[in-house]
């Protein structure tokens, strides 16, 4: 009996390891060139034949017909034969996906780079460090930098709270929601809170990590945070720009999915979150049929185009619009700060694109500020090129990428007062795809930081800070007229009674 029990345990363990461990040995990433309706129909039929075993990293775009597909080792010969039959040209971009994953992980350093406020920083920052030390709690321990590496959710969480302790006059961590698996959805607000007068500064929202496998976006958001705080610390030439903005940064929109891509028995190329609504889909033998694509779940043109209705698809849009915890948390926060946030940058990968306007349709009516935002996007692209020599393109998603509904950028444009709204796709264009080695973390972070500074400069131009006294109601940047309740009417029941008595007597 004991031997039977032991064999049963071994069998169960073996089955579980096969189910949960995801490796990509021999898998290839192909670039296909799909031209015309006939080829597109043949391409889609080929995808359907393999029943979700083909992962489309980049759908064929309208402008060039180029798309990127991840093909499993056992399917690649048949897949290529079908492409040849349909006369669809293709070439191999990555010959062994697992090898790239292994290289990515081996290249990831255990610690991030030293920051100006860390021990042993450069002499030039010591005077400013002494100034800041007088304004923060003494002897606050550092949990170590995570800038320049692919950090875990736990490391990111520790680092954000460490920044809050180190910079109490600047940094504040807010929990804006909980994920399906119970992780905190963390936002870091950065803004100088030591001024004697009340300053209404325009806010800029930056988020990353919506799609779990896009690690470079998370590291780039972390880099942006480090640069904002470094500007305050060293008081360099950018502080007048950076310090006149309130920054709202969510470096990881999808903690559950991200943690799954980094787990030993996880799936590195997982895209969605990890929510489950119908357990019959998420069966023992098909664990891909769970999760929702957060960037297809927002309640604007939801599930109209570019989104899946099958829970097993990577672009599954959820059982209903705004069904996901992450989607609602972002929407609720932005709606609640509609008179504060004036710029919005959502960071994805890959493709090297800086996009404006609507994503759901090429024929959608242009937004009034289209000319303004496309000019800003073009300037941001030039700043990236000047910084690193890398070429990005500015335009709209239907022109440069594809049409899709339910995206966060479109929801922001339609439901908030934010007019500077930008969707960014970071490097590269397929040489590594989602699997950029860690030596790309700093240069990619630096180039998107240069672009974000361009956005900030134009937000400040359109919405300069407003100085008020500490006793007056803060004026909104919103052009709509709002009624300001007298301050004394807001301070409790006694003040209300005094106010009513004042009306009766006078």
Number of H/I helices: 15
The H/E string reads: HEHEEHEHHHEEEEHHEHHEEHEHHEHEH
Main pleated sheet: 8 strands, mixed
Helix content: 25-40%
The quaternary state of the protein chains shown equals single chain
* Class by SSE composition: alpha/beta
Strand content: 15-25%
Distance between the amino and carboxyl termini:
95 Å
Task: Count every beta strand, where a strand is a DSSP E run of 2 or more residues.
Answer: 14
- The global form is globular
Uncertain runs are 5-20, 120-142, 281-285, 471-506
Q: How would you write the strand order of the largest sheet?
A: 5-6-9-8-10-13-11-12
Radius of gyration: 25 Å
Average pLDDT taken over every residue: 84
What do you see in this structure?
The protein has helices at 2-20, 36-49, 76-85, 97-107, 126-133, 153-166, 215-234, 239-242, 255-262, 325-336, 370-388, 397-400, 408-415, 441-462, 493-505, and strands spanning 28-33, 55-58, 66-71, 90-94, 171-178, 184-190, 198-200, 203-207, 246-250, 341-349, 353-356, 393-396, 420-426, 466-468. It has 506 residues and is of the alpha/beta class. An eight-stranded mixed β-sheet has the order 5-6-9-8-10-13-11-12, with helices on both faces. Strands 2-3-1-4 form a four-stranded antiparallel β-sheet, with helices on one face. The chain has a two-stranded antiparallel sheet with strand order 7-14. The longest helix is centred in the last third of the chain and has 22 residues, at 441-462. The radius of gyration is 25 Å and the shape is globular. The chain starts with a helix and ends with a helix.
């Amino acid at each position: 009996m004991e031997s039977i029990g032991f064999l049963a345990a071994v069998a169960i363990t073996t089955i579980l390891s096969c189910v949960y461990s995801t490796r990509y040995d021999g898998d290839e990433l192909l670039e296909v060139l799909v031209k015309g309706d006939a080829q597109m129909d043949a391409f889609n039929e080929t995808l359907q034949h393999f029943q979700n075993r083909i992962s489309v990293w980049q759908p064929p775009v309208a402008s060039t017909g180029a798309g990127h597909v991840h093909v499993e080792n056992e399917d690649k010969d048949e897949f290529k034969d079908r492409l040849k039959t349909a006369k669809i040209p293709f070439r191999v971009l990555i010959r062994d996906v697992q090898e790239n994953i292994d290289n990515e992980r081996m290249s990831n350093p255990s610690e991030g780079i030293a920051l100006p406020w860390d021990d042993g920083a450069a002499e030039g920052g010591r005077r400013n460090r002494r100034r800041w030390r007088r304004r923060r709690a003494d002897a606050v321990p550092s949990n170590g930098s995570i800038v320049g590496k692919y950090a875990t959710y736990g490391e990111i969480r520790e680092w954000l709270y460490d920044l809050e302790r180190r910079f109490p006059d600047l940094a504040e961590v807010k929990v804006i929601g909980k994920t399906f698996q119970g992780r905190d959805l963390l936002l870091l607000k950065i803004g100088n809170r030591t001024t004697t007068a009340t300053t209404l500064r325009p806010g800029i929202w930056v988020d990353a990590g919506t799609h779990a496998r896009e690690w470079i976006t998370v590291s780039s958001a972390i880099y942006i945070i480090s640069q904002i705080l470094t500007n305050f610390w060293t008081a360099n030439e950018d502080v007048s720009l950076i310090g006149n903005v309130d920054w709202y940064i969510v470096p990881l929109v999808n903690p559950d999915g991200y943690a799954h891509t980094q787990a030993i028995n996880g799936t590195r190329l997982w895209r969605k979150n990890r929510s489950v609504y119908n357990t019959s889909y998420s069966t023992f033998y098909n664990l891909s049929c769970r999760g929702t694509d957060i960037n297809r779940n927002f309640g604007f043109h939801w599930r109209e185009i570019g989104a899946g209705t099958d829970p097993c698809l990577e672009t599954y849009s959820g059982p209903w619009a705004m069904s996901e915890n992450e989607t609602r948390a972002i929407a609720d926060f932005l709606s609640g700060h509609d008179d504060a946030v004036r710029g919005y940058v959502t960071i994805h990968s890959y493709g090297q694109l800086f996009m404006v306007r609507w994503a759901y349709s090429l024929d959608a009516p242009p937004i009034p500020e289209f000319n303004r935002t496309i000019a800003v996007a073009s300037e941001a692209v030039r700043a990236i090129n000047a910084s690193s020599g890398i070429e990005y393109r500015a335009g709209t998603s239907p022109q440069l990428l594809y049409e899709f509904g339910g995206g966060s950028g479109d929801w922001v444009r339609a439901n908030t007062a934010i007019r500077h709204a930008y969707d960014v796709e970071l490097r590269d264009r397929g040489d590594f795809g989602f699997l950029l080695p860690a030596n790309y973390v700093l240069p990619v972070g630096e180039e998107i930081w240069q672009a974000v500074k361009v956005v900030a400069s134009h937000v400040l131009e359109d919405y300069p800070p407003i100085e008020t006294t500490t006793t007056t109601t803060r004026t909104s940047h919103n052009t709509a007229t709002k009624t300001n309740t007298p301050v004394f009417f807001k301070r409790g029941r006694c003040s209300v009674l005094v106010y009513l008595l004042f009306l009766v007597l006078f």
